[in-house]
Amino acid sequence: MKRLVPLGLAIGLLWLPTPALAKNYGQRGEVFPVTEVNLLQAIAARLHSMQASGEYDRLNNQLRDRTMAYVQRPTPVAGLTPATSARSFTYDPSMIVDRDIRDRDGRLIVAGGTRVNPLNVLPFNQTYVFFDADRKEELEYVLRTYPNNANIKLVMVKGAPIEAMKRYQRRFYFDQGGYLVNKLKIVHTPTVMVPAGDVLRLTEVPL
């Protein structure tokens, strides 16, 4: 907010008449009347023109096709390679609360500055399997190893989740934008994540 005040003041000062800016220079050259363009009319005319030429339908179809293509096959998570050796590491989800957290009645739940581990607060018993569904061996490993269970999340980093769900009658997820992969520092697939006390254990599985 403080940064907005000087800017607003400066803009206001630009509009104040000063001896240097208020000088009358007279009329020079031909003067044309200022005409105000009705923005809504201009937009309506443009849309009408696009509809008449078929451009409107063409753009709509392009948008629909791009959206469907993205839904069917989301952008792959970049930077991942197949696991070549068994490696296990842990991820600590603890965080520092930056301010007091209170309930509706104002009672303190967690004080600001407290280190909190969600695994110590909320029950978590799920297994996450991150894999490249475009690699046949990874897809076969996932289907062979992990049963259809609500506590098992099959997370694609590359592939076509909707097509796979129809074909295998299984629920698949996709790590949109690589959020989980980057958060958990996953670099190889397949990687299996399971809870291990107050940390998450991730294991790379070479195939």
Write the layout of secondary structure elements.
Blueprint: H1 4-14, H2 39-53, H3 55-72, E1 81-82, E2 87-91, E3 95-96, E4 101-102, E5 108-110, E6 115-116, E7 127-132, H4 136-145, E8 152-158, H5 161-168, E9 172-174, H6 179-184, E10 188-189, E11 191-196, E12 199-204
Parallel strand pairs: 1-10, 7-8, 8-9
Antiparallel strand pairs: 2-12, 3-6, 4-5, 7-11, 11-12
Question: Can you characterise this structure?
Answer:
This protein has 207 residues and is an alpha/beta fold. The chain has a domain at 81-93 and 123-204. The chain has six helices and twelve strands. It has helices spanning 4-14, 39-53, 55-72, 136-145, 161-168, 179-184, and strands at residues 81-82, 87-91, 95-96, 101-102, 108-110, 115-116, 127-132, 152-158, 172-174, 188-189, 191-196, 199-204. The strands form four sheets. The chain has a six-stranded mixed sheet with strand order 2-12-11-7-8-9, with helices on one face. Strands 1-10 form a two-stranded parallel sheet. A two-stranded antiparallel sheet has the order 3-6.
Key structural traits:
single chain, about 210 residues, alpha/beta, six-stranded mixed beta sheet, two-stranded parallel sheet, 6 helices, flat, disordered N terminus
